Amino acid sequence: MTSATHSSLFPQVPESADAVLDGLDPEQREVATALHGPVCVLAGAGTGKTRAITHRIAYGVRAGILQPASVLAVTFTNRAAGEMRGRLRQLGAGGVQARTFHSAALRQLQYFWPKAVGGELPRLLERKIQLVAESAARCRIRLDRNELRDVTSEIEWAKVTQTVPADYPAAVAKTARDAPRDPSEISQIYGMYEQLKRDRAVIDFEDVLLLTVGILQDRPDIADQIRRQYHHFVVDEYQDVSPLQQRLLDLWLGSRDSLCVVGDASQTIYSFTGATPDHLLNFRTRHPNATVVKLVRDYRSTPQVVHLANGLLGQAKGKAAEHRLELVSQRDSGPEPVYAEYPDEPTEAEGTARRIRDLIDAGVPAGEIAVLYRINAQSEVYEQALADAGVPYQLRGAERFFERQEVREAGVALRGAARAGGNDSLLDAAEDLPAQVRAVLSTQGWAAEPPSGSGAVRDRWESLAALVRLAEDFGRARPGATLADLVTELDERAAAQHAPTVQGVTLASLHAAKGLEWDAVFLVGLTEGMMPITYAKTDEQIEEERRLLYVGVTRARFHLCLSWALSRAPGGRASRRPTRFLNGLRPGSAAAGPRSAGGTGGTERGRKRRRGPALCRVCGKTLTEAGEMKLMRCEDCPSDMDEALYERLREWRSGQARLLGQPAYCVFTDKTLIAIAEAVPGDEGELSRISGVGGRKLERFGSDVLAICAGQEVGEGAGDPSGED
Length: 725
Hints:
single chain, 17 strands, seven-stranded parallel beta sheet, alpha/beta, 29 helices
């Protein structure tokens, strides 16, 4: 975590309403002072939209124009809602409701259900995938794990677009939607899913919106009661509103027009969930007297990054493209975006990890670096490459932090230790709260040094390490805090989904990166078939893929690298082409539209030599998975590893790690050591062919490893202690 001053953590509340406006640029100030009638804010990436709308609410409250309890601000994630509430408190506008659509609707549903329906609200089904699986089984339809996930998403899409099971096949045909199964089968599963919910008296998250809409439509008295409470509405990320959410918003408003919406059609990337920019684009048609303000001053990214972003949109087509915003960077000049081409995916991952290591060595915090890809399946090779380079990382967009099994188990252990208090011998030697937490979590798999390599063991350690860091921060902030106090803090954070920071480079899909930003961003795998994705067929689907890349580019503040690989596996045919979206923007490509105004950066070829196809040395099968290519054999093929050699290598690695003051995996990962112990290389050429033994590691550690493989003794200090890699 980066250090922060007391004033930045606890900023002084502005003394007056006018002081709330201090520091806003002219367009942000126009937003903040437009407090009457419908307001539409078209805000480009990095232009300070959250700042503008929170200052607008705070100015209205501090000036006495808006009553805090009468304002409802809605957005799409708990994180965004929490950030908005925090900023409003800092501006002296506490008491304003800032919630997600689902959270606001659920609160109203829980309150009005006894009056509208009677009895208690049905139990909320937090994970629908198991019920979808049962529904498919009852329909005698077999779904594999991927199909199950996709069918669950289809049911969610149908519900937010207000499509009933019987109408699903027609809706798919009308929208040219690419269904993961035969639409009639999905219709069957969807119908059975709804039946099972009714039988078991449960509702899902989409039902929360549907039922709230139903009550407000059927009970004018309840709708009037809500309208008497909330007089003013603010909707963030308005380009992501679904038809169902828009219907709920209309019912909240009634005949009034005290509404402020904020959005950017160029960041519409969730149409597969039912989101549509039409409500944003048609806002002025529905509200002819609306005040419209455009925010185009980009405070996030350098001119070089902004020029590339503008160049991407300059080639866009369609309705959303007609409303694109030309961003103007407000930052000092920075480095040109780098374009890197590699022969294959493992080499691309290794090259990316090498660049990241160089940035970290140059002082860029690991937590300010991100690797973004189109689909989550691309993460594995980058996890391995970063582990090989000794770079910590975290996966974003996977399971929520507090829902991870290891976090739940840690919570149980901490709660038990808190109840036991002084009667727990585990805590006898622990002098303070952080020490107590470390002692408890050591029984759950935490250790002072992270495990080598990647995978589930490393993920578990990272989760527990985040809890340890949280305990250390909590202990510093509250010196007298007890273990019970920390457990209470964890419970409150879990309820708000306020996860602690997991240190390391962020690995995330482009969709999961929306709303975030980093100093350095690596956009990887930018080939035709992946960007745009192969199943994007229609013009609008292609344009949404372009917008997705635009979102990725605009996540970068300073450093930006865009890369692609010509083949998937080493030695494969170089048949891939870079994404069409970079045509005319990257060096050596034909222009497909207006060129970026700010230079094109430089394309760098991957430095690693071309290799032959990776074949299993046991059965001869071509290898494609990163872990198998590292071992040079299929995972299920028998290993001929020299166990004694492996143990000698591990002992040597521990000594090198102590000497360098780094985790053991920074020397070599376990899989690399296994591969060495299986191959028993006799010279540098054989050693260099083992994945994970790059040129620098070969130069630094090669003589030691070859000596150990030859049965010779090696001194602990033989390696280069500089730590350079």
